[in-house]
Design brief:
about 25% helix, six-stranded mixed sheet, 13 strands, Metallo-beta-lactamase, Chain A, alpha/beta, about 260 residues, binds zinc ion
Length: about 260
């Protein structure tokens, strides 16, 4: 499995970094998770063909995760896409996504490819007929209905928390995973405010990764400044180094050999 992040910033955006969005390549399929920045150029920069993108996952309807959806769809249409695009989301996110596409009249464009909405609060999607690769999504704890994501290719398992306060569902999904990508919106001394807003501190993210027995942990949805301190705080709770993944390049995730 390979992952390419396009941004790891929360709503405010650190200088030079984008909002959280990433591509996953597994079983010769490409999945895009959330839609921010300039999706067409970001995908092209890592060699993804917009006309071939296999699945889009929209985790929730907050601005920083959804605003570039019209751009993605418009670019794919301009590029000549004809293949239907499966779009996985919960109901609230689908409604907002459809409104957003409607603002630009995109569904009515001549020759627009089909959107295959897969709309459930939780569920799973097989990427290959053999069943060796799967996306599974589940509700997490945020201000609006939001999903977390478990991604599996054979023995390799990656879990993305989505935007959430510390969540049992993430913990269960992340048990023994090879990489837990967890949101981190601030430090431990800000936990009361973070919880109220449906977010997680660095310490809580690190602790959850340790409790889950994740092989690796990475932080995303970071505030505009102070990343080093948050990484250190999470690492202390995790008991080993915590990563902030590089952007704009593929990172290969291997099964933990134990
Ligand atoms: Zn959010």
């Amino acid at each position: 499995m390979r992952i390419a992040f396009f941004g790891v910033s929360g709503a405010l955006g650190a200088p030079g970094d984008g909002n959280v969005s990433f591509a996953v390549e597994l079983d010769e399929r490409t999945v895009l998770v959330d839609c921010s920045g300039s999706p067409a150029s970001q995908l092209a920069a890592v060699g993804c063909d917009l006309t071939e993108l296999d699945v889009l996952v929209l985790t929730h309807a907050h601005t920083d995760h959804l605003y570039a959806l019209p751009s993605l769809i418009h670019s794919a249409w301009i590029a000549g896409r004809t293949k239907p695009l499966p779009i996985i989301s919960n109901h609230a996110t689908r409604e907002q996504a459809q409104r957003l596409l409607g603002v630009f009249g995109l569904p009515e464009k001549s020759g627009m490819f089909r959107f295959d909405w897969i709309t459930t609060e939780e569920g799973s999607y097989r990427l290959s007929e053999s069943g060796g690769s799967e996306l599974r999504w589940f509700p997490v704890l945020h201000g609006v209905p939001t999903i977390g994501l478990a991604i599996r290719e054979g023995a390799v398992r990656v879990v993305y928390s989505g935007d959430t306060a510390p969540s049992e569902a993430v913990l269960e999904a992340a048990r023994g995973c090879d990489l837990l990508i967890h949101e981190c919106s601030g430090a431990f001394d800000d936990e009361a405010r973070l919880r109220q807003q449906g977010h997680t501190s660095a310490e809580q993210a690190g602790r959850l990764a340790r409790e889950a027995g994740a092989a690796r942990a990475a932080l995303v949805h970071l505030p505009a400044t102070g990343w080093e301190a948050l990484r250190d705080e999470a690492a202390e709770a995790f008991g080993k180094p915590v990563e902030i993944l590089a952007r704009g390049c593929w990172i290969t995730i291997l099964a933990d050999s134990g």
